[in-house]
């Protein structure tokens, strides 16, 4: 897996000044939701007001520039928010300049911008302090030196958002090495994920929690072995699978079989990331996306970014779909999001 912070530094700098100009007006517009609509899980379905829904969304960098209005024109139901500096990330208030020189918008301002546009917000920590060496991907959570202070931050998030049901917290991004060379076992996954979920639940926060699978998010076998027992002990859980090489380079029959097995196991799943480029190999997500859509799974693209030189970016600098050397990724995903939902 390639380090994601490196992709975002230039983006953050370009948007910092523009974001600061908007920040005062945005903060004045913030209002807490009075919407009593609830989200819940029943079997393998995500429910809104007890009715099954399918969600199509994107990963986004609104921490560097909150309230991207164009996202609504693409019919995005979810913004899975990149939080690369959990330690320095403000919950509320004005944007702050962190130790890396990036301006960070508050989580509440990001949530409020998404809420105004009827989007669910998934808050997900990608890194501890914004440095490459403290990225979460590929790390065994309980073996990191920031394990204890991270849990304290997670508890702060859970307390702050406990009465905002359109805010879902994901406990970690892409845990454990892709090759399991870090001593990984399914029992380690179960212990770590249980501890992180418990940290959120003891605050009284009842909202949906995202729990990632193993091998940097791409291996669903732990869910097939441990998923149902995990759900018996924890409510309102959605499992997050990331679909890169281990999915997109598989053959079509195998993709169908793997998706069908997840359905048969009655596991609530969201594919939290997929894109045509990850570790230097150009892939074609189109068959996978159609298979996911037809089975009613929810999915988020990597990534909502205005940069035709990034093959994973959905948009060019002028906001049109980015189809540059990426199997028409921008148009493919925009067309998917325009379809009626198929829960």
TL;DR?
By secondary structure, the protein is α/β, with parallel strands linked by helices. The protein is built from nine helices and 13 strands. α3 crosses α4, α4 (186-201) packs parallel to α5 (221-233) and α7 (252-264) runs parallel beside α8 (286-294).
How far from one another are the termini?
31 Å
> Which band does the percent of strand residues land in?
15-25%
Low-confidence stretches: 6-36
CATH topology: TIM Barrel
Mean pLDDT: 91
Sheet with most strands: 8 strands, parallel, barrel
Structural class from helices and strands?
alpha/beta
Q: Please give the domain count.
A: 1
As laid out across the biggest beta sheet, the strand order is 4-5-8-9-10-11-12-13
Supply Rg. 18 Å
Keywords: Glycosidase, Hydrolase
GO biological process, one term: polysaccharide catabolic process
Pfam family, one: Cellulase
Protein name: Glycosyl hydrolase family 5
Question: Mind explaining what this structure looks like?
Answer:
Belongs to the glycosyl hydrolase 5 (cellulase A) family. Residues 150-307 form the Glycoside hydrolase family domain. InterPro entries: GH, Glyco_hydro_5, Glyco_hydro_5_CS. The protein is an alpha/beta fold and 343 residues long. The protein has one domain (5-29, 50-337): TIM Barrel, CATH 3.20.20. The chain is built from 9 helices and 13 strands. The chain has helices spanning 5-29, 107-116, 147-160, 186-201, 221-233, 245-248, 252-264, 286-294, 329-337, and strands at 39-42, 45-48, 51-53, 56-60, 78-83, 96-97, 103-104, 120-125, 167-170, 209-212, 237-243, 269-274, 298-304. The strands form 3 sheets. The chain has an 8-stranded parallel barrel with strand order 4-5-8-9-10-11-12-13, surrounded by 5 helices. Strands 1-2-3 form a 3-stranded antiparallel sheet, with no helix packed on it. Strand 9, helix 4 (186-201) and strand 10 (209-212) form a beta-alpha-beta unit. Helix 3 (147-160) crosses helix 4 (186-201) and helix 4 packs parallel to helix 5. It is globular. The two termini are 31 Å apart.
């Amino acid at each position: 897996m390639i380090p994601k912070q490196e992709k975002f530094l230039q983006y953050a700098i370009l948007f910092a000044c523009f974001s600061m100009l908007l920040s005062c007006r945005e903060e004045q517009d913030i209002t807490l939701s009075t919407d009593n609509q609830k989200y819940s899980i029943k079997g393998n379905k995500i429910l809104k007001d007890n009715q099954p829904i399918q969600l199509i969304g994107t990963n986004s960098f609104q921490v560097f520039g909150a309230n991207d209005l164009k996202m609504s024109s693409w019919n995005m139901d979810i913004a899975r928010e990149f939080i690369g500096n959990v330690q320095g990330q403000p919950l509320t208030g004005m944007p702050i300049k962190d130790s890396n020189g990036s301006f960070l918008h508050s989580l509440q301002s990001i949530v409020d911008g998404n809420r105004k546009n009827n989007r669910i917000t998934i808050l997900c920590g990608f890194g501890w302090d914004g440095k490459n060496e403290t990225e979460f991907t590929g790390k065994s959570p309980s073996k990191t030196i920031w394990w204890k202070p991270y849990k304290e931050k997670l508890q702060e998030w859970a307390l702050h958002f406990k009465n905002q049901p359109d805010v879902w917290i994901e406990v970690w991004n892409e845990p454990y090495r892709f090759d399991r060379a870090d001593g990984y076992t399914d029992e380690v996954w179960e212990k770590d994920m249980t501890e992180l979920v418990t940290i959120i639940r003891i605050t009284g926060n009842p909202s949906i929690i995202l729990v990632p699978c193993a091998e940097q998010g791409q291996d669903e076998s732990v869910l097939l072995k441990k998923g149902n027992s995990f759900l018996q002990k924890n409510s309102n859980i959605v499992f997050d699978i990331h679909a890169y090489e281990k999915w997109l380079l598989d053959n079509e029959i195998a993709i169908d079989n793997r998706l069908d097995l997840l359905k048969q196991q009655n596991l609530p799943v969201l594919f939290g990331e997929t894109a045509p480029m990850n570790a230097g190999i150009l892939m074609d997500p189109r068959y996978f996306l159609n298979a996911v859509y037809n089975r009613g799974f929810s999915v988020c693209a990597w990534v909502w970014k205005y940069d035709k030189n990034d093959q994973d970016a959905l948009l060019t600098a002028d906001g049109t779909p980015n189809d540059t050397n990426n199997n028409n990724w921008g148009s493919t995903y925009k067309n998917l999001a325009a379809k009626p939902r198929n829960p």
